[in-house]
Fold this sequence. Notes:
6 helices
Amino acid sequence: MKRIGLILPLLLSFLSSTAQEPADSLSLPDSLNHTDTTQIYKPINFEQELDNIVRTKKKPFYSYIFDAADAVTNFFMGCDTNYVTPQLYEFTAQAELSYIHDYYRMNSNQSGQATHMTIQSGNPLVLGGYVYWSILGYGHSINLEDIGRHKGKTNATGRRNSFVLNTARIIAEVYTFRSGKSAEFTSISNIDLKGHDRKFTGLNSKCVGIDAQYIFNHKKYSWPAAFGENAVQRKSAGSWKLGFAYNHMNITFNSEELSDYIASQIDTTLLFNKVSYKDYAVSVGYGYNCVLRKNCLLAVSILPSIGYRQSDITDEQMDKDILRKISTDVFFRTSLFWNNTKYFSGIVVDLHTYAYRQKRFGLTNSYGTIKYILGFNFLKKKQYKK
């Protein structure tokens, strides 16, 4: 009995200890048993917050417009400032005085013998200008000979309207252009033009176009510094470019405006009523900016293109002949500029050629412009005022 009395307490003690083990095994870790008062967020006092908003002084509406424009500009004009000084001002104004050379050459072999005639415009002086707000701009130009003339008697050659986007990454232009009037014949197959009236006012050309380019090395190479005048190249650099262009050209020829001598001698296969063609082209080219000295830049850009062309022609012999084919073109531009970020001045030369071809008839229209540009920037952006 004594042994049983000693064993019984031990057995009860063992059973009680094993019964407590499951409860201990379910105990929560200390990290969850203690509340971290630092993680408790204070409730928001909405009335107080609303009162703070109401009491906050509102910015003028126009400041939001400028802030948005600055944000867009910073994205598109982002550059390596060791190579390029970006546009420091909100607005740019510039004047242009241009000399235009417009050239047309018609070829025909409909009569079994190749013939040609060439017409050159009157090389007019054109006055124009651009106004930029940030990266957006609008330009307009007129023929100086048209000033003071009544409507219907104007030359219109050189009249141009354009909307432009000039950024470091992307450049684009939508434009309309007129040329051709006030021209003269320079040569005609089998006709001696010496001593005869060579003036011709029956040629009229209208063009609507879209040009866009993407600059790959936009951090170091600046197209706006070379041709947009709203940046300054500090170190020489170049870049490959990828472009797209659309041009719709209409050229009309009024044979009733021919002089009596030319009308009686010219091969009628060279005559047409209207040529219309549309170009859709993709181009790959290269541009290089050479910094000659501080604030002085020489720039060259060459952009060959290949594309699809749809052409229509109407004349007395053919009701309508439609030609669709591959087109090739080259756009060359160069400039010499001085720009100290506030004022700028320079010369820009553009050369462009459009060519229409089919078996019996061909027409080449090439034009070039030499521009003298003078302008200034104003209203410095707030991030550059310091």
